[in-house]
Amino acid sequence: MNNRRDDRSMQFARWWVQCYTAGLPNHESVLRRAEIDSDLAEHAQCRELDGWTLKQIRRERVRRLVRGMAADLSWRHELVTGNCQTRGLVRVSVLSVTAVAAVALAMFHFAFAAYLLGNTSLAQRRFLGGLDNYAEEVGRPVAGMIAALIIASLGVVLLAAGLARPVSPIIANVATIAIAGVAVMFFWLGAWPVALVAVLGSTVDLATRTPNLAPQP
Amino acid sequence: MPRRRPGSLLPLEVGILAACLDAGDAGSHGFALAKAIADAGDSRELTATGTMYRALHRLDAAGLVESWWEDPNHAAAAGRPRRRSYRITGAGATALAKARAESTDTAAFSRIDPGFAT
């Protein structure tokens, strides 16, 4: 019975709860997840007793979930910005998540840089494609190393931004703007994959930065 | 969504409080409340999960309902996750009575002057 209930719609519901409770104080997220888990089980049991088919149950489950998504996000927003008792906890928690996300992104950049160093022709072709004259002038290995260096530098800046955010949001914001600036520059130069990586990095960083805008208690 | 006046209850909150009142001291869990509201309104559509629990959280924070978690051993014996039950408080019962009285007044007044309700 439980296996039957643990279908994709159930997994989707649990995944969604994990998403909107991420970064909230531990007791809030654990309680909400437990409550939704209970709701899902009660819903399935009740509808089975009503004689509904599994398909009907899944459909209603997803419909209830999707219709309530705005309220879920609103609930989260209320916790993050409106509740003085939990605001500090949320802030610390979200900042920790930001730092971890930045470290993960930086690691990705370093790994990418290492991969490019091992394959300099690919680096030159794919990541400095718009700088053909320059690549011809300095040679492919050097151009590849430059591409790797740029990617690794973005990793360093992201790492610095993530680690600096709990201490000084201003430094972190400057770092984020710097990454965005690099993205614009490389897009202009035609090396759009580098620009894309930089935009991705700064977007993730900016997205996790939002709670810093919450008023202080 | 209707705009809230300070101190007033939204229709969903009135529904939740009424369902809690019907459930009595034993209380009722979130899904049972959603089902009770749907049954009372002759609707097949259950309140959305997020809407329901956000409203319950709001009522709990306002002291209009109180909640408690079921004993884990009891839930394990029944083979399901632990339930969180809700029970109406004295303040909740007062707020519900006030909301119902206001709604009756509004309905009576709008019968006299149909333009009032628009």
Structure, briefly:
The complex is a heterodimer of chains A (217) and B (118). By secondary structure, chain A is mainly α. Chain A contains eleven helices and no strands.
Write a concise keyword list for the protein shown above.
heterodimer, A: 217 residues, mainly alpha, 0% strand, B: 118 residues, 3 strands, 57% helix, disordered C terminus
N-to-C span of chain B: 16 Å
Give, in order, the helices and strands of chain A: HHHHHHHHHHH
Report the principal-axis shape of chain B. Answer: globular
Q: How many strands in all of chain B?
A: 3
Spatially, the strands of the biggest sheet of chain B line up as 1-3-2
Strand content of chain A: under 5%
- Helix count of chain A equals 11
Task: Please give a structural write-up.
- The complex is a heterodimer of chains A (217) and B (118).
- Chain A is built from 11 helices and no strands.
- Chain A is mostly helical and 217 residues long.
- In chain A, helix 8 (132-138) packs across helix 9.
- Chain A starts with a helix and ends in an 8-residue tail after the last helix.
- Mean pLDDT of chain A is 70; it is low at 84-93 and 207-217.
- Chain B is mostly helical.
- Chain B is 57% helix and 10% strand.
- A 3-stranded antiparallel β-sheet of chain B has the order 1-3-2.
- In chain B, helix 1 packs across helix 5 (90-112).
- The chains are: A mainly alpha (217), B mainly alpha (118).
- Chains A and B meet through helix 3, helix 4 and helix 5 of A and helix 2 and helix 3 of B.
List the helices and strands and how they pair.
The complex is a heterodimer of chains A (217) and B (118).
Chain A: H1 2-5, H2 8-21, H3 26-49, H4 54-67, H5 69-82, H6 84-118, H7 120-127, H8 132-138, H9 140-164, H10 169-189, H11 192-209
Helix pairs in contact in A: 2-3, 2-4, 5-6, 6-9, 6-11, 7-9, 8-9, 9-10, 9-11, 10-11
Chain B: H1 11-23, E1 28-29, H2 30-40, H3 49-61, E2 65-69, H4 72-78, E3 84-88, H5 90-112
Antiparallel strand pairs in B: 1-3, 2-3
